[in-house]
Design a protein that fits this description.
The complex is a heterodimer.
Chain A (H helix, E strand, L loop, with lengths): L4 E3 L2 E4 L5 E6 L6 E8 L4 E8 L2 E4 L8 E4 L6 E5 L8 E8 L10 E2 L3 E5 L1
Parallel strand pairs in A: 2-11
Antiparallel strand pairs in A: 1-3, 3-8, 4-5, 4-9, 5-6, 7-8, 9-10, 9-11
Chain B lengths: L2 E4 L4 E4 L4 E3 L1 E4 L5 E7 L5 E7 L5 E4 L2 E4 L9 E3 L8 E8 L6 E2 L3 E6 L1
Parallel strand pairs in B: 2-12
Antiparallel strand pairs in B: 1-4, 3-9, 5-6, 5-10, 7-8, 8-9, 10-11, 10-12
Chain lengths: 116, 111
């Protein structure tokens, strides 16, 4: 069974450009989460989808970030326009746990975003 | 607010050395505690967990005990291997959207 996959693994863009990150969760997982680790600091929650609906987007830093999950399968996270402080590693995770426990998460390997 | 503080890295040890990575937390209530590991080129994986005070989580030779009195969850292994080289994250919380991670500790093991 395929795990959580993220594309691209690395992205280098200039300040002001747009970048779209993609996450393919494990098939059948209704819960999809985005997290990010900025500047080698702690990993922080961004948002949570249940199928195609945003369940919790309290961690989204500002309106330059837009996440979608059309059809309830893969998800995209767009940053427009990108700023220097957006550099970091963006992780996606999925689970089928109705209780949405942290221990049931399956993580992707992350997208390393560098904004120059 | 809730927070997790863990030992800053990088930590470099020789093979078969004893490992301790310190982790302390501040939280309201009694959160579940976790250690996640990220091997090179891979995603985070749950290494072990403990859900209540005095619980000991263990996996792959690693152990950590939930210490309520010291609000700690230190990770230990008696004899590390080169294959243990990775980044280790301590975390606290229960739900996937409320989990708080530490900043990670990079561990390198020399043959």
């Amino acid at each position: 069974e395929a795990g959580v996959t993220q594309f691209p693994s690395h992205s280098v863009i200039e300040k002001g450009q747009t970048v779209t990150l993609r996450c393919d969760p494990i098939s059948g997982h209704d819960n999809l989460y985005w997290y990010r680790r900025v500047m080698g600091k702690e990993i922080k929650f961004l948002l949570h989808f249940v199928k195609e609906s945003k369940q919790d987007e309290s961690g989204m830093p500002n309106n330059r970030f837009l996440a979608e999950r059309t059809g309830g399968t893969y998800s995209t996270l767009k940053v427009q326009p990108a700023e220097l402080e957006d550099s970091g590693v963006y992780f996606c995770a999925s689970s089928q746990d109705k209780a949405r426990g942290a221990e049931k998460l399956f993580f992707g390997s992350g997208t390393q975003l560098s904004v120059l | 607010g809730n927070s997790v503080t863990q030992m800053e890295g990088p930590v470099t040890l020789s093979e078969e050395a004893f490992l301790t990575i310190n982790c302390t937390y501040t939280a309201t209530g009694y959160p579940s505690l976790f250690w996640y590991v990220q091997y090179p080129g891979e995603g985070l994986q749950l290494l072990l967990k403990a859900t209540k005070a005095d619980d000991k989580g263990s996996n792959k030779g690693f152990e950590a005990t939930y210490r309520k009195e010291t609000t700690s969850f230190h990770l230990e292994k008696g004899s590390v291997q080169v294959s243990d080289s990775a980044v280790y994250f301590c975390a606290a919380g229960s739900s996937a959207s409320k989990i708080i991670f530490g900043s990670g500790t990079r561990l390198s093991i020399r043959p």
